[in-house]
Every structure is written in structure tokens, then in C-alpha cells.
Amino acid sequence: MKFNLFTFLFVFLFSYSCLFNHKVSADFETTFANEIYNTALKAINEKFFFKSNLNTEKWETRFKDKIVTVGDAHKYISKLVKGLNDPYTRFLSCEEFKDEQDIMKSSFVGVGVKLALNKPQIIDVIPNSPADRGGIKPNDYISRINNKSTFGLTPSQVAGLLRGEKDTILQIKVKRENQTISKILKREELNFKVISSKSLGNSIALVKIDSFIPENTSKLFREELTKLMSANGLIIDLRNNSGGLLKNAVEIADMFLSEGKIVSTTSYIEKKNQYANSNVLYNSPVVILVNENTASASEILTSALRENNKAIVIGKRTFGKGLVQEIVKLPDDSALHVTIGAYLTPSGKNINKSGITPDEVVNNNEDQIQVAKKILIYYKNKDISRIALR
């Protein structure tokens, strides 16, 4: 085989080209990875509410020259977020952010369970979902998913393991009282109903708000409430509703208030008040049902109606999440939830970690509904301004 000068030059140039392209590609990823990390750091520097938890200089220099790949950027953003000691400021991978956006559109791929805010415990099961058909029940504690222990994982990490590609299989182990139960479930595309209602007789209606996350929650609530205008009493069920978008809570509260403050939000820069717009849609007595998993936007709605003397609150003390997050999209379509402030009830109360104590504490679920009905029957045809028990 002859190896002439032309062949030598061709091989040399081809090899050099490959090495050059590889270097360009590697340099590009490193630049891009640092852009992702710096965007996250900038957002936290500018927006994070608890400034005393933030050491800007430390996080600017700590990982310098260590971020080479996008995976490095994600790893160090996660470390940065963990170092803030705020459970609500968190990093979302591209997949987790996409899942969240899907949920905002009232659809996602998964098995159909809702988790508690602070542990991998199931608080609700979507009817006719894979979990429902598989016998998974509220209060089941998820111990393993596909042989991965949930010990030490956040609820959002557990939720990420439960979601996945449509028609894929997962094995889930749950603890139920003294039993450990194993189930095989197939993930499905789920379209969950955020708002549902039913008549309870005696001209009393119950409307359940399952979540404030979907963008159209307030619109759907208005449509449902319009159908219930003839009811002389309304029960709003916020049990196991862990919150979502602030605007949904404000817009729903405004449907019941002719005047008054709905909520105040405060950041390290400013304080903003949001008031009712005098567009009352429903003016009959209201009872709100809450429990230990009622949180965030649900607590905003509850406080707004109770403190403006538009509702009585029945059930258990609420979760107590009085912090506001903003979603910051990063250059690679991953994202951050950044705590940007706190909210205060109309009277100026900060309910973070303390929650809302109901007007009447009732522990049993069925009893809560019965007590609510009795209150509404009592207040039928009475002055609505007397409804609050304080």
C-alpha cells in the first residue's frame, strides 16, 4: 500500500478537524454550562427573600473552573440552593420543569397521586387513575419506587420518580399501618379535574378546588360558581389543596368581596397590597373546609374571606406556608423556584409555619361537612356580615 504525501495531508487535516470541532464543542458546552449557573446565581442574588442566608461572594467563586458540562451546572445549582436553607427555593431539571408546565395545563403523565408538602405520603388519589385502580389509598406512605428508597428525598423528587414516559411501568411500595404493600402501575396521561361541585340538599352546594396550580383554575371556578348562584349556602372544600398560583387565589377571593384587602405581599424591596375590585359574584353565606394539607394559595383564599367576614372556617389547622415563589427559567429549559417574599393576611398576620386555626376545629372529614351544613342552614336568610365567629 502506497502512502503518499496527499494521503498523509488528508489524514492529518481530517484528524485536526475532528479535534478542532471537538474542542469547539467542548468549549461551547462549558460556556453554556457557566451561563446556566450564572443565570441561576443572578436570579437568587436579585430575588431571594432571605438575604441573610445568602453569601454572594462565596457562591460566585466556590465553583469557578469546576463547571465544565451542563450536568456540572445542575449539580452546583442544586448545592447552591441547598445551602440557602429554604425548603421552597429549589432547582427543577428540564424534565421536572416540563412536568410542572404540563400540570399548569391540567395534564401530566403519571400514576395519579398527590403528595404531602413535607413527606412522601399520599394525601389524595385521582379517581380512575392507575393508582386508584391499583388500590393505592390516601395516607399510604411511599417507601420505594423502582427499588429506589424515598428516604431523604423531597416530595418533589418523589413526584419526579412517579412521573415518566407514557405506558412505562413502575413498581411502588407503600406502608399502610403495619403492612408493606407492593404494586405494579403503568403511567398514563392524566387530565385531572381541578374544580368539581355537587348539591348537598337544603339549597347548599359544595365546590372543591383540588389545586391552584393550573393557570385556568380561577376561570373554571367562576364557571362552576355561576352554575351555583341559586344556592343559599356554599361550602368551599380546600382540604388537601397545597396551593399554586397566587393570582388564582386573588381572583377567586375577588368573586366574594365587594371591598377590602385580599392579601399583602412583601419582599426585601417593597410591600404590595391587593384589594377587591367590587365585582361580587356570590353573596350568600360561605363555609371553607381546611386541613393540615391546606397550604399557600389555599391559605390566602381562606384568610381573605374569613378576615373580610365572608366565610367561617371549619376543619383542622392549616399547613402554614406563607412564602411566595417565582419561577425562573434557565437557558437550557431547566428552572428555579425562588422564594421572593412573604404574604400577609388582610389583618397583617404572617401565618408561615403557624397556619390558620379554624373557627371550629373538627377532625373527622364527614363531620366537617355536616358541621358546615348546619352552620349554613342556621345562617340562611340572615345578615351575611354576622357570619364570622370571632
Care to describe what's here?
By secondary structure, the protein is of the alpha+beta class. The chain has three domains: 72 residues, no CATH class; 83 residues, PDZ domain (Pdz3 Domain, Roll); 192 residues, 2-enoyl-CoA Hydratase, Chain A, domain 1 (Alpha-Beta Complex), CATH 3.90.226. Helix content is 33%, strand content 25%. The strands form five sheets. A six-stranded mixed β-sheet has the order 10-11-12-15-16-19, sandwiched between helices. Strands 1, 13, 14, 17 and 18 form a five-stranded antiparallel β-sheet that branches. A hairpin with a 5-residue loop joins β17 and β18. α8 runs parallel beside α9. The chain is globular, with a radius of gyration of 26 Å. 38% of the residues are buried. The mean pLDDT is 89.
Text of the CATH class of the largest domain? Alpha Beta
What's the total count of β strands? Answer: 19
Note the beta-strand portion.
15-25%
What spatial order of strands do you see in the largest sheet?
10-11-12-15-16-19
From the 3D structure, determine the CATH topology of the largest domain.
Answer: 2-enoyl-CoA Hydratase, Chain A, domain 1
Can you write the helix and strand succession as a string? HHHEHEEEHEEHEEEEEHEHEEEHEEEEH
Task: Looking at this protein, list some descriptive labels.
Pdz3 Domain; 390 residues; 10 helices; alpha+beta; 3 domains; 6-stranded mixed sheet; 2-enoyl-CoA Hydratase, Chain A, domain 1; 25% strand
